[in-house]
Design brief:
Elements (H helix, E strand, L loop, with lengths): L2 E6 L5 H12 L2 E4 H16 L6 H9 L3 E6 L2 E6 L2 E2 L7 H11 L2 H17 L2 E4 L3 H5 L5 E6 L2 H12 L6 H17 L12 E4 L5 H20 L1
Parallel strand pairs: 1-6, 1-7, 2-6, 7-8
Antiparallel strand pairs: 3-4, 4-5
């Protein structure tokens, strides 16, 4: 199987680029961030605003059933029978997900889903520590980054000015970067052989063109 991994900072365009490459290359895409967000939705249903601890997470994981299904090409995340797909991008979910995703026992559940998917499909797997930890043998690895202000503006344009200010989004991203970078498990770091792309000043199409060229060159080398 030919596997492409996409890692990177929050708001760096991972999901958008993964979807675009999936459409261009006509291969499947797994958004692992969506799985973590779905798990967060279920956590918030059960525990409301209680901050997670190791004991709470252990209890939470004892009775959790995670399913990922594709409906007309759209990835659906179903946790304990509830389809949370339409709630995954809510601001509360975005802010709470980093608090849960640092627990390694939770991450292991998601890793199992990722690895099974990559074993069965030529695919793009997008999320966190995919190229470094989950799929270290992937043939092509990307790590996306962008300036804080560029990422904040993208998020601001997504959700609209009525809901939250640009400055608030910027502070949330800075806080999330700090959590993501210094956590004990699942730290946001590129694999040693990852191709790092800063798309602060690139359009979506420019980023897609750059990635597609790299992928096609790697495929040519493999087929020789």
């Amino acid at each position: 199987m030919f596997v492409i991994t996409i890692d990177g900072k929050a708001g760096s365009g991972k999901s958008t680029i993964a979807q675009g490459l999936s459409e261009r290359l006509k291969i499947k895409k797994l958004n692992t961030g969506a799985i973590y967000r779905g798990i967060t939705c279920e956590y918030l249903e059960q525990y409301k605003d209680v901050k997670p601890t190791e004991k709470i997470i252990n209890n939470f994981l004892k009775n959790i059933i995670i399913k990922v299904e594709f409906n007309e090409g759209e990835q659906n995340v179903i946790i304990n029978g509830t389809n949370f797909t339409s709630f995954l991008r809510e601001e509360r979910v975005s802010n709470y997900t980093p608090l849960l995703s640092g627990y390694d026992n939770l991450r292991e559940k998601v890793r199992q889903i990722q690895r099974e998917f990559a074993q069965k499909n030529d695919c793009i797997v997008e999320g966190r520590d995919i190229g470094r930890v989950v799929l270290p043998s992937a043939q092509c690895k990307f790590f996306f980054t962008a300036s804080v202000i560029a990422r904040a503006k993208r998020r601001y344009n997504q959700i609209g000015e009525e809901k939250v200010s640009l400055e608030t989004i910027k502070k949330d991203i800075e806080k999330r970067d700090e959590i993501d970078t210094y956590r004990e498990f699942g730290a946001m770091l590129p694999a040693k052989d990852a191709i790092i792309i800063d798309n602060s000043n690139l359009t979506i199409d420019q980023t897609l063109d750059k990635c597609q060229k790299i992928i096609e060159n790697k495929l040519k080398i493999i087929k020789r």
